[in-house]
Amino acid sequence: MAEAGDPLKLLTEAITKGLTIALLDEAGTEVYGLGEAKTLSFRRPSGQSVNLPKDTATRVRAALPSSEEESADQIASAAKLDLQTLLFCWLKRELPTGEYINAAISQGTAFVSVQLKGAVIDLLQGKGDQSGLVIPQPSEGTDAQEDAARDAKPKASVYVPNRADFELVKQLYAFTEPIQLMDKDKALRGAKPHDFSNVRDMVKDRIQAVKNDLRNGGKGLSVTSHARPAPEAQAQKRKRGHDVPIIIVSPSPSSLVTMANVKRFLETSQYEVGSESDRAEVQQITHKRQLGALSKQAMLAKGSGSEKEVKYTILDSVETLERFGDWDRVVCVMTTGHEWQFKNYRWEDPKALFQNVKGVHFRWANQIDASMHAKLKSWNVTEYQLQPNQRHTDKSIIAEFWQSLEQWIAAHKPQLNY
């Protein structure tokens, strides 16, 4: 049972036991963004709540000690991480390091160093021995005079993040373009796709000539290379035309992505609520697959000379699926995290379902639900966070969605026409 006076134990207890952490502003009203909050309210198993300022220091070190043996003065002067830094690190634990640091700067929150991030996340989940990262609690019998004498001694100069500096940086970011931090994979991918179709056109005639020569047993170029294809080839082409991938969205009214707005969202990378007049039983969308979106093996199989327009069918019910397709064509299911959605599915168990299709969940970034996040993670569902008032970020989120989905199809259902 966590002690009311120990912020670290309150936070780890809430995370490991799935207890509620409410964000409160100065008036005590619940808010949904860590930047707006001033206080963290921890709900205890007994039903009581413990409120602490979000900048309350914990016993977690901001940096590991330089030596195994530390004096009492060194321990007392060690820089410590506060509650909001630990909570933000936990909420963004699945982001790549560069994106996590960028999000922390935008939020005005200190970030955990790259060297300590993994150890801090394990500590908050109660995994492993992280005793070197945590400053022990002072003994109850510490003499008050000794404490006063220790405090009177000069302390070593230690860098402690200044909250005023973070607020200033946050204001500066409001007037300038944010710094886009990238990992090595994104940096190598380039800012935009390059079109090498001119190279393909240069060698197209030569390649076609070689193909025709091989088709005729190497006895010269065929004069009938433009003849009508065989009936088997035509049948195979018609068959491929029907192998259009299917995406199922949730029929729940609480879902951010519905049949009323899914077409505009996935085709134009612009989120809007949509209206009932835009709702259709089936939606057909077209997505332009970018160079480099697939693995090397898939690119060799599908051809990577240029971009390719790929069609997808969107629907939201099993009844519609029975009329317009089959489960072998389903590549993605968008879920709100409620099991009732999967009734009458081929796989009604969520864990079995998302072993056979790509699972996706869209939510607002300021809606924090630790229990829902844990459930979706156990189902193998990928979460995407939409910013409520920053529509310019939709494009990067949708680009990440398409890249992830196309890689999943290439690995699990390469026979589809994608």
Number of DSSP E strands: 12
CATH architecture of the largest domain: 3-Layer(aba) Sandwich
Tell me the span between the first and last alpha carbons.
Answer: 53 Å
Strands ordered across the widest β-sheet: 8-9-7-10-11-12
Instruction: Give me the CATH fold name of the largest domain.
Output: Rossmann fold
Contiguous runs where pLDDT drops below 50 for at least 5 residues: 140-145, 220-229
Number of helices: 16
SSE-based structural type: alpha/beta
Provide the gyration radius in Å: 28 Å
Strand residues, percent:
5-15%
What characteristic shape results from the CA principal axes? globular
* Average pLDDT number: 79
For this structure, what is the CATH homologous superfamily of the largest domain?
RNA polymerase II accessory factor, Cdc73 C-terminal domain
Order of helices and strands: HEEEEEHEHHHHHHHHEHEHEHEHEHEH
Helical residues, percent: 25-40%
Largest sheet: 6 strands, mixed
CATH C-level name of the largest domain: Alpha Beta
Q: What's the structural domain tally?
A: 2
